[in-house]
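Lesson 9: reading folded outputs for more than one chain in a single document. The general rule is that every protein is listed as its sequence immediately followed by its C-alpha cells, and records are never interleaved. Here is the first one.
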Amino acid sequence: CHQFSVMDLAFSPDGRWLASGSLDYSVRLWKRSCNRFTAGPVLRDHERQVYAVRLFEEGGRLRVVSASNDKTVRLWDTESGRQLALGRHEDRVKYLAVGRDWIASSGDDNTIRIWDYSLKPLRTIRSETRPIGLAAHPDGNRLLVGTVDYPHKVNIWNVHSGRLLTSYTGHKNLTQAVGWLPDGTAVSAGGSNMEISFWNADT
C-alpha cells in the first residue's frame, strides 16, 4: 500500500488494471480479478509527489502516464514497471488527459502540453491563467480545460492546431472538475458558488 495520501486513480480501458498516484512519490499498479486486487509493479522514479495518473493502450500494450510535482510527465510499461520516456514542464504538473492518439498535461507553468503516445512533444498551448482539470472529448480533437485564476474561464482547445475554440464564463471561482457527456455537452464545476454547469460546447 501507499505510505501517504493517494491523489489520483485510473482504470485501464478494459477495467482489469488500476493505477494509483500518491504523495509518497510512487505510482502503484493493481490487477483486478472480480472484486479482488493484486499488487503489481511499483513505479518509483518520480522525485516528488505524484498528482495524476492515466492508463491507455497502444499497439496491444498497456501504458501508464503520470504527472508530478517534480515537473515531469513519465511514461511507463505496466507489465515490467519500466520507465519508457520522460517529458518536462517548467513547474509542477498536476493534471492529465488521454485522447485518441495524444496525451495532455497541464502545470503551474501556465501551459498545456500535448504529447504523442511515446511522450514526444507535439505542441505547447499557453494559457492566460493556470490550467487545472483536463478532459478529452471522444472525438479526439478537443480538450476541455478549467482554470484557477480570474477571469475563471473554462476553455475548449483544439489539440491539433492549438487554437482556442470557445470559452465558458459562467463560473465565479476556480473550476477544477470538468468532463463531457456522451452527447458532447460540456460539464464544469468548482469554486465557491457550488454550482455544476452544463453548457453547449459548440457555441
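And here is the second record, again sequence then C-alpha cells.
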Amino acid sequence: SYLLHLINRALTLSGKGIVRIPVDRYKVSAEKLPTRLGVARWDHIESYDGKKVVTDVRRLLEGYPLRIPASWHDADSAETVQLGEHDMIGIDGLHVLDPSYTAALKGNELLSIYVEAPAPLRFMRRLKRDLSRKTPGYDSGLSILKAWATVVELEKIFVYPTRDSAEIIVEEGSDTEAGNLFSELHFLLNHLLIDPEVKANKS
C-alpha cells in the first residue's frame, strides 16, 4: 500500500495516477473462509475472491465505474473509483502475483512488483494491526501469537513461490522502523502477556 502511495505521488507530477484495488477488501464470506481446527485462515489464497477481483479490474479497464467493497473492520470504507485517461491500476494484495491473477489478466500490460520485509518487522506490524483492529479469531494475546506460525506456513505455500516471477523486488522497511523494532516488540509482547489467556498458559 505504501509503495503504491509513493508511485502515485510521483505519477501525479506528470498528470497521471494509480487507481488502487486493495484485494483485502475482497474477503469471501465467513462461511467460505478456509479453517483449521475451527480457526479461520485469513492469509489463505482461498480467503479472497480472486475471480471477483479480476472481473472488477476488467470492468474498470473497460471504462466502467467500480464500487470497491468496504473492509471488514470499517463498514464506511466502500468507495467508487473510475480509471482516468492516463491512470494505471494498482492491484495490492498478498497473492496478486499468483497465476490465478496474472494469467487471468494476460493481454494487458503488467508490471509485477514483489515487496518483502524481514520477518521480525512483519511480525511486529501484524501484532500492531491485530491489536488495534481486533481481527476475528485473532483478538486475544494467545491467538495472535499462535497465528504467526500459520502466517509463515501459508506464505511458504502461496507467497514465496511467486517471488521469482516478479519483474521488480523491493525490500521494504525504513531504518527508523528497524531501529525501533526491539523496543516496539518488547512493548507489544508485554501488552499481549497481560491477556489472562496467555498468563494461564504460561503457568
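What the second record shows: The two ends are 40 Å apart (CA to CA).
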